[in-house]
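Lab notebook page, bench 4
Experiment: in silico fold of construct C2
Operator: M.H.
Input chain length: 122 residues
Purpose: comparison with the prior construct
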Amino acid sequence: MIFYEAPHRLAKTLATMADVFGGDRRAVVARELTKKFEEFSRGTLAELQAVAANPRGEYVIMVAPGDGVQSGATDDAPTGTVIEQVQAIIDGGAAPNAAIKQVAKRLGIPRQDVYNEFHGIE
């Protein structure tokens, strides 16, 4: 991910990124790109907060992709059949069509297939 940031917001942005993405996420902070005195700082988001101590110039923040595992992802992972997943979402207060669409998107299958299975249509 690439972010363009003003110097007066750099410290707050890096702190927020460390909170959201995790302080151990790799990143690069580039200053004054395409200019004579361009500068690159590499490290984790937590380490790069020191760069914001005396910000001058224009900044570009490049954040490395995550490892694909979110904390708590296994606790919230859907379980059960397609029908059980749709019913669980409906029980949570969603409309049937919205629940069907959500399960289809999550499983990567056509919405019509989930609809047919939920309603028992051959």
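Observations: Residues 15 and 49 are 7 Å apart (CA to CA). The two ends are 44 Å apart (CA to CA).
Next step: discuss at group meeting.
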